[in-house]
Each structure stands twice: as C-alpha cells, then as structure tokens.
Amino acid sequence: LTNNRIHMQKWDYIVTELKRSFSTDDRYAFVPLDRGLFKPVMMFDKEAKTLYTVMKRHNFENLMGRKSVTKSHYIDALLDYNYGYQKEPLQMDIFDEPGLFSANAELQINDLKLTIGSLLNADDVTRYVTIVVDFTSFALTDAKAVLCSKWLNIIESDSWSEIITPSYEDNMVSQVESEYVHESSIKARITVE
After folding, report:
1. What distance in Å separates the CA atoms of residue 169 and residue 100, rounded to the nearest whole number?
2. 74 with 80: CB under 8 angstroms?
C-alpha cells in the first residue's frame, strides 16, 4: 500500500498488517496520503464515520506541544474534522483563539483538506482519531486511541495496550540484524466513544 524510504520501512509493514487485519471487512477503507518522502495511511471506518492514522508517541507529543503553528503538519488538517469537540461544552482554552495557526499554516491546512477531500468523501468524516504507538525496534509496546480538538487539546484517550497480543514474525532481515513486526488484535476496539 505504501513504499516509504528505507529507514521508515517499518511503517510499510505496519500499514500492511493493519490492512491485512481489516481487509475482510468492507467497513474500512485504506487511503495513502502522499506527503513527499513519507506516506501515512488514513484508515476510514465507513460506519462510525471516523478517520484514523497511526503516529509514533514522540512525534505526536511534539505536535501537540506546539504553542503556535507556522508550518502545518498533515495532522492539523485531520484535526479540523474535530472542530466541534471540546473537553467541556463551550469551554475554550487560551490557545483556542485565532492566532494559533499562522495565515500560511491555514493556507497549507486548507490545501491539504482539499487533497484529503479528493481521496475520501470528506462529507462522510465526522471525527479523526490518532492511534498513538510506541515501539522497541519493530515490536509494538504501547498503543492508545486519542481524540484531540482542532486546537491541539486531548479530549479523550483510550489505552489499547491491554489488547495487544504479541505475535512476532521475522518479516525483515537485514545484513546486520533481524527486526520484527508486531501484529495486534485491536480490531474489536477500533472506535473511541
């Protein structure tokens, strides 16, 4: 489904395993998002109308920690689907005001939303959830589903670590070492409610 750079090849295996796990169910659609050197894959649950991507914890925390955004990341466009979500109804944080995103970042976000809209039927998407993961080499060690507001606030987080069932395959052998790909049985708990 994807063909990322060699040092990001584990993401190709992760996407392959996700697609393999959900391929028997027409409920899910997998769409790569071309971002140049890296191609994240969006997984769309047609029944729950929820869009998912997988991201490493370290990258996710760095993105959520931004106090101003001058150059957008693809997650900024996806979080726009969560515009109406807040921790408490009608409560706004100090960073919720206009100005978090620069004018240039807003243009980038709008362009990316058009791209996403051309790949999916964007009218069908009601929310976006990030699947945040941690690895040791290729072994998945932690997973959680995180619903964030457009303004980079975590609204809800659901740990999926207790449902990780280790099953390792020797899928990638290099001259120096053997690395492993983790399979997970998270299919039963794919939505955050």
Report:
1. 43
2. no
23-65: per-residue pLDDT in tens?
A: 778 888 888 888 777 788 899 998 999 999 989 899 999 998 8
For residues 112 and 78, what is the distance between their CA atoms, to the nearest angstrom? 9
Q: Give CA–CA dist 179/165, Å, rounded.
A: 18
Which pTM was predicted? 0.75
What's the confidence (pLDDT) of residue 164?
A: 59
Angle formed at CA 71 by CA 50 and CA 16, multiple of 5 degrees: 40
Q: Which residues pair with residue 127 across a beta bridge?
A: 50
Q: Is pLDDT above 50 for 105? A: yes
Q: Is residue 105 a contact partner of residue 71, using CB atoms and an 8 Å limit? A: yes
Contacts of 57 (CB under 8 A, 6+ apart): 132, 133, 134, 142
